[in-house]
């Protein structure tokens, strides 16, 4: 494969499976297992790193093709696909820490990641600190002698907090800790954390990588040795993707750059429109100079992404009226696909968090989160304008 290929050439041609029938599209190996003819061949396939395919929970050619492609796009040595984004987050985190270690993550992280750090890890004897914000100084203050993991999510869920990746990775290195970055919101098109010193990247491929709201999948990317450790978790815990799911993500990757460029542009435009609207109190979008993370985001991101949040003037009730009046976006959990989705964190997606923690993380009662799709930007703006008239 071409070493100097650009993003989309790599997304289309990188990690391609050489198929005996010369199929142009990556074939879907929809098989649970693979046969061998002799005991000797079976024994060879039973090794930790088999010289071929044995069983789909271990590895699958279609899934392998996806893994090679994502590794190239993230600039990682290797990658590992999982059945969901949480499969990737959980298996990567469990491969990074052991009982007695301490791990740090922001509290305004994705809700199930928050629960992993707040409930699951402590129940396995792993100490955790959930930070009130995404500042590198907060990570520094949380460090303990036994800190072994700094978990980053930037931009961050749902108020687009930005973490200075280079500062946090420098802290981790001086502390013998590992960094894992959830790059779901940014995508490797907008942000390449491994180039900034991060050890491991995780994705919910359900979002931008798949891009069409039709697949649940995840990916872990990092050094070959870390991927081997994570593979052990995935094989034991069983968070392996289905080959068809892997294929849908491969198909999505081909248009990732096209989609994300359009989403970057439309989200920026919508953010500017909302920021100038009399019935909007606040807009959270790292592309706006008023955003506290703007400078850091400008340094570490190629584009500011397709996610934004805003607060409707007047609080909970007016924000619910606007939320329910939107005609184009679907009110649905998830993000990163071709169609615009909206969520109401205080009313729906962040209700698992104690109210004080929610407020400290900046999740107000009036907040609406928008995942901007690839619809025509004029139509989106008109729709938000008509919905805001109901505030
Ligand atoms: C940033 C982030 N990480 C992880 C996940 C979990 O992904 P999945 O739903 O594919 O398990 C999500 C889901 O919304 C997310 O937004």
Compact description:
By secondary structure, the chain is an alpha/beta fold. It is 40% helix and 15% strand.
Textual characterization of the structure:
- It is a single chain.
- With 391 residues, the chain is α/β, with parallel strands linked by helices.
- It folds into 2 domains: 7-254, Type I PLP-dependent aspartate aminotransferase-like (Major domain) (Aspartate Aminotransferase, domain 2, 3-Layer(aba) Sandwich), CATH 3.40.640.10; 257-388, Aspartate Aminotransferase, domain 1 (Alpha-Beta Complex).
- 40% of the residues lie in helices and 15% in strands.
- The strands form 2 sheets. Strands 1-7-6-5-4-2-3 form a 7-stranded mixed beta sheet, sandwiched between helices. Strands 8-9-12-11-10 form a 5-stranded mixed beta sheet.
- α7 links the parallel β4 and β5.
- α13 (316-325) packs across α15 (377-388).
- The chain starts with 6 loop residues before the first helix and ends with a helix.
- 53% of the residues are buried.
- The model has no long low-confidence stretch (mean pLDDT 95).
- The structure holds pyridoxal-5'-phosphate (PLP).
- Pyridoxal-5'-phosphate (PLP) binds next to α4.
- Pyridoxal-5'-phosphate is lined by residues 84-86, 89, 110, 112, 153, 157, 182, 184-185, 204, 206, 216, 218, 334.
List the helices and strands and how they pair.
Layout: H1 7-13, H2 39-45, H3 61-74, E1 78-82, H4 85-96, E2 102-106, H5 111-123, E3 127-131, H6 136-142, E4 147-153, H7 165-174, E5 178-182, H8 187-190, E6 200-204, E7 218-222, H9 224-237, H10 243-254, H11 256-275, E8 280-284, H12 294-300, E9 307-312, H13 316-325, E10 330-331, E11 341-343, H14 355-360, E12 367-371, H15 377-388
Parallel strand pairs: 2-3, 2-4, 4-5, 5-6, 10-11
Antiparallel strand pairs: 1-7, 6-7, 8-9, 9-12, 11-12
This protein binds pyridoxal-5'-phosphate.
